[in-house]
Amino acid sequence: MAATMSRPAALAKASRGRLTVCAATAVPKQFKAVKPVGDRVLVKVAKEEAKSVGGVLLPASVRNKPTAGAVVALGDAKTIKLSDKVIYSKYAGTELELAGEEHILLKEDDVIGVLPSGDKIAQLRPLADRILIKGAKAEDKTAGGVLLATDSAEKPTFGTVVAVGDGKEDEETKALVKPNVTVGATVMYSKYSGTEFEEDGEAYIVVRESDILAQLA
């Protein structure tokens, strides 16, 4: 997998204009296992990259920590299995240090999707009401024909649906409600929604069904 969203070593969250830093919770050494309760899952975090793309060794302070890992323990989660490799929301969960290894305790709904054995984002299986979209290419010229620099090209908010989750359980009927979009459709989504990925020069984003604004035809 070429790239995922970064996660700081000590989780930083903005709260009312102030930055709160939440360090990982160290599980006392006498405890060898953690059993998630309810719909929670325990994920062993994938190893972070120690070198840049060009092979330069990075100091710990600037390394990008992955938001992916393998499921090592389950509560009552219905859509995830042991050993599944999953991608999860950037600021979700509680970080744990267990037996010297980095883990994260997540709610099932914080898991974005399950990765195939080849770790390809293009083959991600999104969970619940999430939708995997392959982003459209950004325009490299203005309407008047002026060539734009890469960093000033307007980022598109539409693309092609690659995969659709199985749906989300209705709170009243408990029936599974499948997202009302289909694979292959071109959709427009909210500008600041979802989780973005880049792989093999292509942009992907995973959004909730509620972030889909329209289908284009």
Care to describe what's here?
Keywords: Chaperone. InterPro entries: Chaperonin_GroES (IPR020818), Chaperonin_GroES_sf (IPR037124), Chaprnonin_Cpn10_CS (IPR018369), GroES-like_sf (IPR011032). With 217 residues, this protein is mainly β. The chain has two domains: 1-119, GroES chaperonin (10 Kd Chaperonin, Protein Cpn10, Chain O, Roll); 121-217, Roll (10 Kd Chaperonin, Protein Cpn10, Chain O). The protein contains no helices and 18 strands. The chain has strands spanning 11-15, 18-22, 25-26, 40-45, 68-74, 85-88, 94-98, 101-107, 111-115, 125-126, 130-135, 158-164, 168-169, 176-177, 186-189, 195-199, 202-208, 212-216. The chain has an eight-stranded mixed sheet, with no helix packed on it. A six-stranded antiparallel sheet has the order 16-17-11-12-15-18, with no helix packed on it. It is globular and about 60 Å long. The two termini are 31 Å apart. The relative contact order is 0.16.
Considering the chains and any ligands shown, give keywords for the structure.
single chain; mainly beta; 10 Kd Chaperonin, Protein Cpn10, Chain O; 2 domains; 8-stranded mixed β-sheet; globular; disordered N terminus
Sheet bearing the most strands, described? 8 strands, mixed
Q: What strand line-up does the widest sheet have? A: 3-7-8-4-5-6-9-10
General form: globular
Helix/sheet category? mainly beta
Distance between the termini: 31 Å
Compute the number of helices. Answer: 0
CATH fold category name of the largest domain = 10 Kd Chaperonin, Protein Cpn10, Chain O
Output the helix-strand order. Answer: EEEEEEEEEEEEEEEEEE
GO molecular function, one term: protein-folding chaperone binding
Organism: Edaphochlamys debaryana
Protein name: 20 kDa chaperonin, chloroplastic
Keywords: Chaperone
